[in-house]
Amino acid sequence: TEALELLATLELEPLPWDAMPDGVDPVADVPWVDYVSVDGGIAFSHPEGWTVEELSMPDGPFVVLSTPDGYQALDVATYRDRAEFPFVSPCAPGETGLGPFTVLERVPIEPLAGALQGTAASTLEAVTLEVTDLVIVAMLSTADVDAGCLDPGVGVAGGLVRATTPYQTDAPELIYDRYADRRLPVGSYEHRVIVEVLGTLRVTGLGPA
User: Fold this and answer.
1) What is the per-residue pLDDT across 115-138, written as a single tens digit (0 to 9) for each?
2) Which of 84, 131, 154, 199 is most enclosed, with most CB atoms within 10 A?
3) DSSP assigned state of 209
4) Residue 22 CB burial class (10 angstroms; 0-12, 13-18, ≥19)
């Protein structure tokens, strides 16, 4: 009786959304679902319980993937070339480039399909890198990474594709805000999911003509 009375006085905290029993792989053993943008140009898979928000933009969808507790983990967007706003890569000859950065992990991916397949100037990778005080994950050109240049916009026929954890923004509740030092731990559940999602990414179009 005394034990039951003691239990009744305890305030039990719910388990965090990413808590898993021993022996359960939160990436491999949890159901994943498929997402396809309204225009059909962007598709990827993500863990059930993570949320996707699609914003309609003039050049195509801007897709935001968030954790179940609302932290923005990945942005995927397409941009169509416009004569009045030509794209110039910071890694192009004569440009200063973005950086410095330190590469922590590189995973080959093949996100381009359909009409865009093979139109990038280089093979692509899901790259985990340290930039200033952040650890980010981004889809990058193998050639740019090898050259020590950071360009999160991958040039393809007719425009560019960007897929990265959000940075260079003061928006609230970014994935880094889950950690006191704002560094996404390599090998953590969130990091593994982001890399795995990029591995499932398929981009087939650049939105409205």
Assistant:
1) 999 999 999 999 999 988 889 999
2) 154
3) -
4) exposed
Choose among 111, 187, 182: nearest CA to 142. 111
CB 71 within 8 A of CB 97: no
pLDDT tens string 29-49: 789 999 999 999 999 999 999
6: helix, strand or coil? helix
The H-or-E segment that residue 198 falls in is helix 189-200
Output the tens digit of pLDDT for each of the chain's 209 residues.
Answer: 565 455 455 444 444 545 555 666 767 778 999 999 999 999 999 999 999 999 988 878 899 999 999 999 999 999 888 777 777 787 777 666 666 889 999 999 999 999 999 999 999 999 999 988 889 999 999 999 998 888 889 999 989 999 999 987 777 789 988 888 888 899 999 999 999 999 999 999 887 76
Could you tell me the two tokens for 30? 């949890």
Look up residue 102 and give its two tokens: 């330190």
Six-digit token string for 25? 């792989």
Query: What distance in Å separates the CA atoms of residue 43 and residue 186, rounded to the nearest whole number?
Result: 25
**Sequence-distant (≥ 6) Cβ neighbours of residue 204 within 8 angstroms:** 40, 41, 43, 113, 114, 115, 116
Q: Cα separation of 95 and 7, whole Å? A: 65
**What letter represents residue 170's amino acid?**
D
Strand, coil or helix: 119: coil
Question: pTM value?
Answer: 0.86
